[in-house]
């Protein structure tokens, strides 16, 4: 006879609402992964007609995702889990993450709708009228340049803004998106009763009421004072009227927000005692999933590529971001974001490697370190770090060339991406010293040949955890930690028995010499590309 659910060991769920998909992962109290599933937006929800989870508008700058697509993805994912016999009654706590910076605008009256959800119907049907803006701006958007300039002027300059909020004004940051909405569509802004990040929006769907924005994801808005961890009045006032009330009070990332909604209890059989722990950004969640320590450098190869580190003290600069740390309240994390990551690798794979990752890997294995001096810049869409556009290829003598052989093109892309990641990390003062571990994660970290190039270019050993999906794992760890923190346990107390990341690539003996030289050339050529193309 099956054991009653109460006698079975408890489970902890981690969700990730990322750019291209919604993922979930379940762990038990011993941190073993017991279940994983996902919903791909483009292929499983084709009615929303997204590409890579987003709509790129005709101006080439505005990028949005339909908020109801995310809602429907959650319906679908929970239904899938139910069909496979997942026992929701065992879940003691859940948490999650979302792509950073994206904004969700809840229409007046939506909090009542959330409270009165009918368990006989899905969320998609019931939340049809719950949003004042149906297309949520997402992190790939770069249409708010004017609002960025205005905010920097109001704050006393770009560096002053970075000192307050951890970043100079960035177009994708939520405050600038909110300012754009207020200026261009004031009636929609006025019809809004709450503004969420993708992460706190997702948490609200589980809570059945508005979830607080957590300090870590809240740091990606150009609105939060990262030292006092309160909204900056200067930034709020420069952004839009009555914003304080629309955002709610931000909370520590490990906060237990409350029990799951009675909707989830009745529709899926969650226990009434199952707790929702604050959701955070996908990169902060990934820091938790990899159990990043001071001195490590994380390289995430998802839709975006990001490089991030654990730092003790904020040192805001004109490039890159400082976020509040998601697992240790007194610490911070530094992050660089590169927009042309996996989607650009996919485009080159399709054009040069027959749309096959196997052939793409073969091209990397069959071409020499340093690519015979060929260097490429592949900014299919306006890059964030640095702000540049277009494809630019150079031969060994720094002459511009219009094409490379397919094999050389694949290597030029991957080497160019990692030279850029290293160059910009070093410019921020994060150097690689003996003993530095590069921790790789994200979808492309399942490709060992890509990780070999990463190891060579960084001249450092590369480690990874078993799963490329560290965001969901981090969210499940954070769910467990949220409960444990109430009895005084730290995040690292909770995850101390997780196996250490495994060594997956070590640098080739000639890598230091090849890429030491190439990095200097890359920096020079990047300057040239910027001068030629800067908008
Ligand atoms: N074998 C592989 N080699 C290189 N890239 C891969 C491989 N498998 C998956 N990917 C890349 O992983 C990306 C998805 O990564 P993921 O971290 O799941 O993204 P996100 O969380 O942003 O939705 C895909 O766009 C794909 O290009
Ligand atoms: O803008 C950033 C970080 O600042 C991006 O990293 C987004 O958080 C999207 O993440 P992925 O879906 O690519 O993981």
What does this structure look like?
This protein is globular. With 535 residues, it is α+β, with helices and mostly antiparallel strands. The strands form six sheets. Strands 1, 2, 3, 6, 12, 13 and 14 form a seven-stranded mixed sheet that branches. The N and C termini lie far apart (69 Å). A hairpin with a 5-residue loop joins strand 20 (390-394) and strand 21 (400-401). It folds into two domains: 5-138 and 194-221 and 248-278, 2-Layer Sandwich (Nucleotidyltransferase, domain 5), CATH 3.30.420.40; 291-467 and 501-535, 2-Layer Sandwich (Nucleotidyltransferase, domain 5), CATH 3.30.420. Adenosine-5'-diphosphate binds at residues 18-21, 302-303, 342, 345-346, 357, 442-444, 446-447, 450.
